Amino acid sequence: MKIQISCLFSLISLILLLFPFATIIVSANNSRQLALLPTKIINNAKGSWEVTTPWKGYGLEQNEMLRIGLYCSGNPRVSVNIISSPQFHTFSDKRAIFKITLENSNAHNTLIQCYSSITTTTGFKNYLHDSQAFLINPRKLELLPTKIKNIDQFKWELIVPWKGTGFDEEEILRLDLYCFLSVPATLKLSSSPQFYPFGSKEASFKLTLFSNTRINIMDNKNILKKITCATYISSANSTNVLYGKQNFGINLFNNRGFDTV
Fold it and tell me: pLDDT at position 103, please?
């Protein structure tokens, strides 16, 4: 009898000991989570993009199979082609990569609306799902008004800003600046052309008018005392080129001896 009671107590102790672990197992099974991370978009060429769809999650097996779909549309006149959608990956792959092309390559400035989704493929028992909407902005590039800083009466710093959409922050841009005077002049322009990543947002040039030219200008009352400049910006990627242009002038003399325009 004592042996039976001892065994009963041992069994109860064993159940109590295992109960917390059983709770943890159930809790862990209910903590399965799956979510899409922000989409990464790379412009490959005019009318072509690489779209990377990453994900994260908890409680999934590393070899558990996932289905990732991507759906995009442009305006009614533009057909959007998506290569390899849907895709199937294991959870450990961490990302899917899609290629997007436009049927009309000249329509690269079309706004594209996209929708990505990710689901588990293990059936409804442990089904997980997430989705994400995003836009592929049309590629646009333009110069903003040039900022002119007077270093002295005949020397200037020209700050050339720009803005755009559909560019990677690291994509390289080329900036050219040309300046002229209405008489033969010795103008020195530092570092043109210049190359900057799109994310820099502005370029800086130095412009100097040399002393022999200054004398000719001050003696000649009939010439237009204004330097005319033109700035050009372009994407250095020859397969996806965009251009921008801007003209501006620098007045040489007024009541302060110099001016910015």
Answer: 74
